[in-house]
Amino acid sequence: MQTLIEQRTDSRNKVAWPVSVWIPQANRFFNGRSCNISKTGVFITLPLTTPIQTGHTVELNFPRTEPLAQEKGQFARIKCGKVVRVDRNNLLENAEIGVGIAFN
């Protein structure tokens, strides 16, 4: 059994929000869902067929509601980050992988 050491410095907030992830190596977007987020990173779920690895740099697109988009002037919040964790433990349960991304 592996012991994990907590390395986060910021508190996380549970947020279930749709997210699109641009993976340059695949030259396309993959749609997933956020699980939790902090000011320094996010943990998301993606389909198990997503070709993502630790170390990849990705672009995250968080869509905004119509009223918020009008207020902010754009329809998505875009963040870039680096994949720091890929969790494949729940593949058989829900056909998803968990991905930890640290914001740049």
Fold-level CATH name:
Thrombin, subunit H
Give the DSSP E fraction (strand runs of 2 or more residues): over 45%
Question: Which regions are unreliable across 5 or more consecutive residues at pLDDT < 50?
Answer: none
Arrangement of strands in the largest sheet: 2-3-4-7-6-5
Oligomer: single chain
CATH level-two architecture: Beta Barrel
Radius of gyration: 14 Å
Global morphology: globular
Major β-sheet profile: 6 strands, antiparallel, barrel
The tally of domains stands at 1
Integer average pLDDT: 88
Order of helices and strands: EEEEEHEHE
Helix content: 10-25%
Walk me through the structure.
With 104 residues, this protein is mainly beta. The protein has a single domain, classed as Thrombin, subunit H, CATH 2.40.10. It has a six-stranded antiparallel barrel with strand order 2-3-4-7-6-5.
Question: What are the main properties of this structure?
Answer:
104 residues, 50% strand, six-stranded antiparallel β-barrel, globular, Thrombin, subunit H, mainly beta
How would you sum up this structure in a few lines?
The protein has two helices and seven strands; from the N terminus they run βββββαβαβ.
Topology summary:
Elements: E1 13-14, E2 18-23, E3 28-37, E4 41-47, E5 57-63, H1 66-72, E6 76-87, H2 91-94, E7 96-103
Antiparallel strand pairs: 1-3, 2-3, 2-5, 3-4, 4-7, 5-6, 6-7
